[in-house]
Amino acid sequence: MTKDYEIIVVGAGPAGLSAGIYIARQRVSCLVISKDLGGQLNLIPRLENYPGTIMSSGPLLARTLENQYLTFKGEMIYDTVERIDESENGLTIKTNRSEYTCKSLVLAPGKVPNNLGIANENVFANKGVHYCTKCDAPFYQDRVTATVGVGGYLLESGILLSRMASKVYLIYRGGALGGDKEIISSIEKKENVELIPNTMIKEIHGNNTLQKIVIKDNQGLEKTLNVDGLFIEMGSKINLDFVKHLVKVNSKGEIEVTEGGKTAHPAIFAAGDATNILYKQIVAACGDGAAAGLSAFNYIEKMKGKPGIRADWKKTIGDTVFHY
Length: 324
Ligand SMILES: Cc1cc2nc3c(=O)[nH]c(=O)nc-3n(C[C@H](O)[C@H](O)[C@H](O)COP(=O)(O)OP(=O)(O)OC[C@H]3O[C@@H](n4cnc5c(N)ncnc54)[C@H](O)[C@@H]3O)c2cc1C
Description:
By secondary structure, the chain is α/β, with parallel strands linked by helices. It is 22% helix and 30% strand. Bound molecules: flavin-adenine dinucleotide.
């Protein structure tokens, strides 16, 4: 039997759970459907930049957000959303195991970083191998690092690491770096950055943590580099196959949103890494998730002829306009 909710949230990463907290707290029926708890938070054993916590971890934050959501009587189901369609009374959500309907939807399916595809990569994940330079470069103050990746991601990684690490090996397959000319010229001037073109990473080795990488150039010559950290910046995958016929998706494969997480569909809101926001970080995902949740709540309240929680209340007394 199809179960009906006022609002459904897709994804239980920081964006989806924050949306859920804000929706459930308004005492409307809310279901979060997610493949897993936490999303990319599960890749963060050491979390230093989430405001309000001195030192935390991604999985701990995920459990805290989930508990907070459940406290407000929100419902949660672990399943994969396969298709969303418009229906007579709103939207129909087909999952791997069931079917649901709702009046409004918050999309927060996030993204998954691409890996390099070499042996041992998973073994050393977060033990020297990293997939988010802007998140993890600060752990490599005065240490030796290598970075490998594509286009602008690699350039950004090189710049960020050069500000922290004592040495940065910047490894790329082509003969020349691609991307912004000014950034390339700035990287070329850095004394602690060594450019290694026409090269790929063949092996990674270590004991408990990463110790060395073996690189191979396009002539077949191999070399071992001793490194403390390897940053892999191969972009990420956003999978919106289940909903891309209803919202507008940009050339990077992200859902286009405007203020309050509005999408091209009036009943669908979105937040987090799957959207066109500038900085893909937890605090931004939480803030935008809360906003998208409130927008979805306002949408259903408006359908019922109620005012909802407005962001733009104002009162005029004499010549003065008060906004609150
Ligand atoms: C290695 C790494 C380290 C990072 N370190 C930091 C850091 O230190 N500080 C920081 O601020 N940020 C960090 N980030 C970035 C941060 O993790 C993301 O910005 C944040 O998790 C985005 O949240 P989200 O909710 O949008 O997406 P995600 O965290 O990706 O969560 C998306 C959720 O949606 C679910 N989902 C996807 N598709 C479906 C579907 N079809 N059906 C059901 N469920 C679905 C997923 O299973 C997942 O649970 C890091 C990222 C990585 C990869």
